[in-house]
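MD-2-related lipid-recognition domain-containing protein (Drosophila ananassae), 164 aa
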Amino acid sequence: MKYTSLDKDFSFTNIKCTSMDKDFCDFDYCYIKPINRTYKYISLKVKLYKVPITNVTVNCSFMKRSNGYKPFLYNITADGCKFLKNQKSNPVLGYMYGLFKSHSNMNHTCPFDHDLIVDKVSTTFINYQFTKLLPFPEGEYLFRTNWIAYGILRATVDAYLSLT
């Protein structure tokens, strides 16, 4: 599918990847790569040290900046392993997963016995997701994912976005 320029201008403004348990996992890299003035992409790689992982809970939320980041639209927590078995079971989580699914190796059910990679999620791809699939109003956003394994928060990824 080709993603073309749309009416709104989308940009990544920052990404922060934090490992809460460096004995369990750690990030090899987590960055925004600017290619030119209008094209950027994000990539990250998390190394898993205690594999296989068979119990994953994920919390995804959108926040909009307004005197700090406030909850906006969705904040959802789900069993990641069950969701990956039946992705149609939760359309909201399906939308959020769709923001990086095609650019990731997280495309199978549990167990996970390898490093997890999200590679080259472009501004053009996210622009399409934010303006055509589920139109968002202009503003600054935070897409936060909390990764919980065996009931313990292991990592957080915060992607900051701007839509003008």
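The beta strands are 10-19, 25-34, 40-48, 56-65, 69-79, 116-122, 139-149, 152-163. The helical segments are 80-85, 91-98, 123-133. ok done for today
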